[in-house]
Design brief:
The complex is a heterodimer of chains A (403) and B (265).
Chain A lengths: L10 H32 L7 H26 L7 H17 L5 H25 L4 H19 L6 E2 L3 H8 L16 H27 L7 H23 L6 H19 L1 H11 L1 H6 L4 H26 L2 E2 L7 H11 L11 H20 L4 H26 L2
Antiparallel strand pairs in A: 1-2
Chain B lengths: L1 H5 L3 E10 L2 E11 L4 E6 L5 H8 L7 E6 L2 E3 L4 H6 L2 E4 L11 H5 L6 E5 L2 E4 L1 H14 L16 H13 L5 E5 L7 H16 L3 E5 L3 H7 L2 E6 L2 E7 L4 H12 L15
Parallel strand pairs in B: 3-10, 3-11, 6-9, 9-10
Antiparallel strand pairs in B: 1-2, 1-4, 4-5, 7-8, 11-12
Helix pairs in contact in B: 6-7
Classes of the chains: A mainly alpha (403), B alpha/beta (265).
Chain lengths: 403, 265
């Protein structure tokens, strides 16, 4: 049924079968590259400028973090509509904690992460324990947290955050070695990190290839493997170079990276991740196999709550304030990012890395169209079309695979 | 050893179960010996699935007792039954389509290579080797254990479900309509698999509407009708007389266990 590897492979044939097998996963990477290339040309290079890319990453941060959690929720065939206002509300609580109660930045963040976890557990209780459809349960959360946000911000309207350390999370960049002679104006630590990432990636790829070979896994033919290594290395180098041209790696980017690596590890390597996918694929089968669907529901919603808190930190620190409308429609952006990133509305399928790419696709569209001066009304329509195209593409490729 | 083998692996005595006003089981006895294939037949709503769900822990009986290898047990969940080595292969295939064969075989029993706090990191290679070994042992033909269950044929999926049930020191495998909705070729493969399991020493209870299947693989068969056992006999003779014989019990023309005076209460 599946050819392990052709004996005398012709390069194009290999590439073709490879593309066909992985089209769903690679489709969005290709889409992201195409979208970025288009906007780069259309804006005469402004889009790909260091400053704009750095901005784009910081703008995507608070949605990307939500999209990671939303991916897990969608995998277990639920939805969480409450996280947008929860993120806004928790940001406002952090602001109040620092400005009114004089908490330190770290204590405030700790406080709202705990509150986020509790809020998530409450959603998990409604959905997993009381068996209320997630749509309804989290719609109640949407209303409730919106009210809570307005309550917290009622007295001042907007709470301005003066804590420098806190604001650096959304605006700051990692420090650099000061040198005026070697590569002036370029962020050297970012370049070094980029280089290290490439080495780590290549080392890891070669190792896992060796391991897979010894277990008779299906692997890429050697020439394609090398092309893939070079392609990804150039990509990482390119991103590092672009970022180094402005102020380097932002703290927001560091937060996104840590969260993505952590969640990707959980979903692909651990028993917990396997159980989350199993519950999404067939809850009855999972339950019969001794997996507690209830426990998984609690864990997934709790993680969503924690990520909503982190999203709240990223947003409020970026704008150095908590406003009454913070978090509006974040949940829908996160859901859209997850679907563009390949999550399946029927559950069981989705990847954390995919959702991050989805978030960047959506934010690139916004950023690019803003730079081109396209009216906001058209922007919504374009984003709608991209979402539909992504889901149609997903369904079409999936049906074809079932033959 | 020989003495131990004489004790039936499963004994169910006088099992009763009501659903509201409906008497699904009216006191059924069942015996399964070591390395025996028992066919369980009966019309719809005869109580076959209910009886098997009781044995697999999914239902708790209102009355009656269950002995596993001579020891009385109380089954309160499918997990309990599984701990005792009783596995059920469900008619609607308890597989997760989004996962590959390895993940399905080890679902809920993932092997951990090391732990990071509450997170267990899976030993994928071990699980993969074991899955390959299991499929080889049962002569199940699937090109790669890394294929998603989604992309397998109906027969292959049933084979995976059965392999999964028999993978972990299972003493009794219960199969609920394992050949339903399968092609003729796939049915043959599933029946071969049942024979293979018996050859390897498993004890099996098989529910089927297809009397040919029961005839082909079973040592003994039991007929239920309206929540009562009406027949319990070794499978012998040729297929036509067997079928005629069994149908007479299924439709109620014959009854070996009818009590004096009370016809069919």
């Amino acid at each position: 049924m599946v050819k392990a590897d052709g004996s005398k492979p012709s390069f194009l044939k290999d590439l073709n079968t490879l593309l066909q097998q992985n089209i769903r996963e690679w489709g969005m990477y290709i889409a992201l590259v195409v979208i970025m290339a288009y906007f780069t040309i259309a804006t005469k290079g402004i889009f790909i400028s260091s400053r704009n890319i750095a901005n784009l990453i910081n703008q995507t941060g608070y949605i990307a973090v939500l999209a990671v959690g939303m991916t897990l929720v969608i995998i277990i065939s639920h939805i969480d509509l409450s996280v947008g206002y929860l993120s806004g509300f928790l940001g406002a609580v952090a602001a109040t904690a620092m400005e009114t109660w004089n908490f330190s930045a770290a204590t405030s963040i700790f406080l709202i992460v705990i509150l986020g976890a509790l809020a998530g557990l409450f959603s998990g209780f409604l959905v997993g324990q009381m068996r209320i459809p997630a749509f309804v349960a989290t719609l109640a959360g949407w209303l409730g947290y919106r009210g809570a946000l307005q309550l917290v911000t009622m007295s001042k309207g907007t709470i301005v955050i003066t804590n420098e350390a806190y604001n650096a999370i959304g605006n700051g960049y990692i420090p650099d070695i000061s040198s005026t002679t070697f590569l002036p104006g370029v962020h050297k630590v970012t370049l070094i990190l980029g280089g290290l990432t490439i080495l780590l990636y290549i080392w890891n790829a070669i190792n896992s290839r060796k391991r897979m070979l010894s277990y008779n896994f299906k692997i890429l033919p050697r020439h394609l493997f090398i092309i893939k290594l070079i392609f990804v290395s150039i990509l990482i180098a390119g991103i590092a170079w672009i970022l180094a041209g402005y102020r380097g790696l932002s703290w927001t980017a560091v937060v996104i990276l840590i969260i993505v690596l952590f969640y990707n590890f959980i979903m692909t390597r651990t028993v917990l991740g396997r159980h989350i996918y199993a519950v999404g694929g067939n809850p009855e089968a999972a339950q019969l196999s001794g997996i507690s669907v209830k426990k998984i529901t609690y864990v997934v919603f709790c993680s969503m709550g924690v990520l909503a808190a982190i999203s709240g930190v990223l947003y409020s620190s970026r704008f150095k304030s908590a406003t009454t409308t913070a978090g509006t429609l974040f949940e829908l952006d996160a859901i859209a990012a997850a679907f563009v990133g390949g999550a399946s509305p029927s559950g069981g399928i989705g990847k954390v890395t995919g959702s991050i790419i989805g978030a960047f696709v959506m934010m690139s569209l916004t950023s690019g169209m803003n730079l081109m001066g396209i009216d906001i009304s058209y922007q919504y329509i374009v984003r709608a079309m991209v979402l539909v195209a992504a889901v149609v593409f997903d369904v079409a490729t999936r049906n074809r695979k079932k033959i | 050893m020989v003495e131990a083998e004489k004790i039936p692996i499963v004994e169910m005595h006088n099992i009763k179960k009501n659903f509201g006003g409906l008497q699904a089981l009216k006191g059924v006895d069942l015996v399964l010996h070591h390395n025996e294939v028992l066919g369980l037949v009966g019309d719809n709503a005869a109580g076959k699935s209910t009886l098997m769900k009781i044995l697999s822990g999914a239902y708790i009986p209102d009355e009656g007792e269950i002995l596993i290898e001579g020891k009385k047990v109380h089954l309160t969940s499918s997990w309990d039954a599984r701990q005792l080595g009783i596995e059920m292969v469900y008619q609607d295939l308890a597989l997760a389509n989004n996962l590959d064969v390895v993940a399905n075989v080890f679902m809920g029993r993932e092997v951990v290579s090391f732990r990071l706090g509450p997170l267990g990191v899976m030993d994928e290679h071990y699980m993969e080797r074991e899955t390959e070994r299991l499929l080889d042992r049962l002569k199940i033909d699937i090109s790669s254990v890394r294929l998603k269950v989604d992309s397998l044929s109906g027969g292959q999926r049933q084979a995976v479900a059965i392999a999964r049930a028999t993978a972990f020191n299972t003493k009794v495998t219960i199969m609920d309509e394992p050949t339903a909705a399968l092609s003729v070729a796939a049915i043959e493969k599933v029946l071969d698999l049942v024979r293979e399991l018996k050859a390897q020493g498993n004890s099996i209870i098989i529910i089927s509407h297809r009397l040919e299947d029961i005839y082909q693989v079973s040592d003994r068969m039991m007929v239920l009708r309206h929540g009562r056992k009406v027949c319990d006999t070794p499978v012998t003779g040729d297929i036509d007389s067997f079928r005629e014989h069994v149908v007479a019990y299924i439709v109620g023309a014959r009854d070996d266990f009818a009590e004096e005076g009370s016809d069919q209460s």
